[in-house]
Amino acid sequence: MTEMEMNDHRMLGKKLELFHMEEDAPGMVYWHGQGWKIYRLLEDWIRGKMADLGYEEVRSPQLLPKSLWERSGHWEKFGQNMFAVPGKDGGRDMALKPMSCPCHIQIFNADLKSYRQLPVRYAEFGICHRDESSGSMHGLMRTRGFEQDDAHVLCRPEQVEAEVARFVGLLKDSYEQLGFSNVRSALSLRPAARAGSEADWDLAEERLLAAARSAGVEPEIQSGEGAFYGPKLEFALQDRQGRHWQCGTIQLDMVLPGRLGASFINEAGEHEVPVMLHHAVLGSMGRFIGMLLEHHEGRLPFWLAPDQVAILPIGADQEPAARAFAARLREVGMRPRILLEESLQRRLVQAHELMIPVHAVIGRREAEAGQVMLQDGAGKCLHELEGAVATLAARR
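Given the sequence above, the corresponding structure tokens read:
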């Protein structure tokens, strides 16, 4: 087996007991406990960053009337990839949502807003479904059920530049913390099949390019690759194998708010239609985890590892000290795992195979002295118990 095959996220998912797929649920992910830890850590991490930047987290239904998707234009564009549910006894036809943007406009429309309340920023970690063809599905990289770090900003045209700069700052900071330093950007312009007037497209493309440059981004131009409702600024990450993965995207939409009746009261007391920015930093959470696994070859950053510290008592007499150390680590929010079975050498191998970043060995002398031997890629170091806790906690 080649090194690339060994570092395929599907192989790593099986080896590390993170997730699996079933033939009777094609394109759907069964997350195991270890994998779900990674998922929730990543989700909570980006959620916190967005909350700090003023995004309000919302939740919208998964099953919505087909008529909503017809009004928005998604049915014409994506209907063949949506899961439709025929209405019973003459009831309305429904569909599972493939994205959340119409729902966020409905939340915006629930009460009439003043220009003083704009921009309004919504974030949602909701499940979406798309009926992908069986030949296009590939582990976590393309699935039929997925969750995005989906966000929408409803604002005035003159607020677009500041909102794009906010997003670009969030995106760059996030990618750097996750170990991606090489990021390419592109601006995708109007496609052949599109909604909206040519004047709106001229303005949207001009504003998004100006906002990107103002934020320090000089994108490549991709003709014809925009969304049907507006141009998009997209970002691709380069992994350790030199592959590029398109992840972050922000799109300027001057179509959907008007189609779905969004408005606010401006300074003159008149109804005005806002523009909308659609964006995601990570995109599909599962796909991003697959990328992280392959990029880091299974050895995730310490803060994101499902088990951070493997605690290895040399003998049975040191098990109480090992449990006490594990309890102290849990008290400060860390994730230890005590390995007890088989020989110490075999347990060290097991900790290495599970890709646990730090190994903590406790022998008779360490237990008696209230110490622990920490070992990671940088070598070994003996610590007092509380010093070890502080050292590890600082790495988070």
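Residues 188 and 226 are 5 Å apart (CA to CA). Try to locate this feature in the token string yourself.
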